[in-house]
Amino acid sequence: MTEKKTAAVVLAAGKGRRMQSGVPKQYMSVGDKPLIYYALRAFEESVIEQITLVTAPGEEEFCRREIVKPYGFKKVRQIVAGGEERFHSVYRGLCALRNCDYVLIHDGARPFVTPQMIARALSGAQQYGSCVVGMPVKDTIKVSDFDGYACQTPKRELVWAVQTPQAFSYKLIKTAYEKLFSKKDVAVTDDAMVVETMLNRQVKLIPGSYYNIKVTTKEDLAVAEVFLKEYQKEEWKKKKSKKILKILKK
């Protein structure tokens, strides 16, 4: 049986208008490293075989020189320029892939994705053809009408906050995006919505993590600093446990 080829499209082409900073959010520091570093490291350490990094036009060489090479991201095989909106950037990333069976699409502004979460997403794509990670919401959600009045309260246990990575059969997501670009005035907010609206196909929800936040505002950046400290504690505990096991085996 032929081994299936896997890839990731990591998006770092956002302008970060809501951050209100002169520095694009993907390059702002969290801890002592640029935000995009953390997502790339997770994919580098995961089961995914190759990464296509999508940057803002003109930033390709900067990313190669300042991020990919210094941090030794060997799986980043290509860096391509994104487009005006997120869905343009995703499509350019998909078009850049060759010899791919399954692809994960991830927002580089979500630094706390993990290799384990990536593996779950890939497994979901292999089993269902399309899946997204997310978490059940903690708050009661109200649906508003156009006048700002609550008109519906969905059952909380049925409402999820969707995250990335979103994982798909490559052929399926590429077909969905090609169909999207043949339409006019179609508004989509994530890749799952492209599959749902263009192919009339359900997308499986699988658990992500409440830590898997998207850094969009200055407040998010402050939260990310706190989460990073917790993450580093867990990493230290794992390394310490491995060291103890090695000692015990001697």
Features:
250 residues, alpha/beta, Spore Coat Polysaccharide Biosynthesis Protein SpsA, Chain A, two-stranded antiparallel sheet, 7 helices, 22% strand, globular, disordered C terminus
Mean pLDDT: 89
CATH H-level name... which superfamily?
Spore Coat Polysaccharide Biosynthesis Protein SpsA, Chain A
Order of helices and strands: EEEHEHEHEHEEEEHHEH
- What kind of sheet is the major sheet? 7 strands, mixed
- The CATH C-level name is Alpha Beta
What does this structure look like?
The chain is of the alpha/beta class. Helices cover 38% and strands 22% of the residues. It has a single domain, classed as Spore Coat Polysaccharide Biosynthesis Protein SpsA, Chain A. It has a 7-stranded mixed β-sheet, sandwiched between helices. 36% of the residues are buried. Mean pLDDT is 89; it is low at 243-250.
Please sum up the structure shown:
By secondary structure, the chain is an alpha/beta fold.
SSE layout:
Elements: E1 6-12, E2 29-30, E3 33-34, H1 35-44, E4 50-55, H2 60-68, E5 76-81, H3 86-96, E6 102-107, H4 115-128, E7 130-136, E8 143-144, E9 150-152, E10 160-169, H5 170-180, H6 191-199, E11 204-207, H7 218-249
Parallel strand pairs: 1-4, 1-6, 4-5, 7-11
Antiparallel strand pairs: 2-3, 6-10, 7-10, 8-9
Helix pairs in contact: 3-5, 5-6
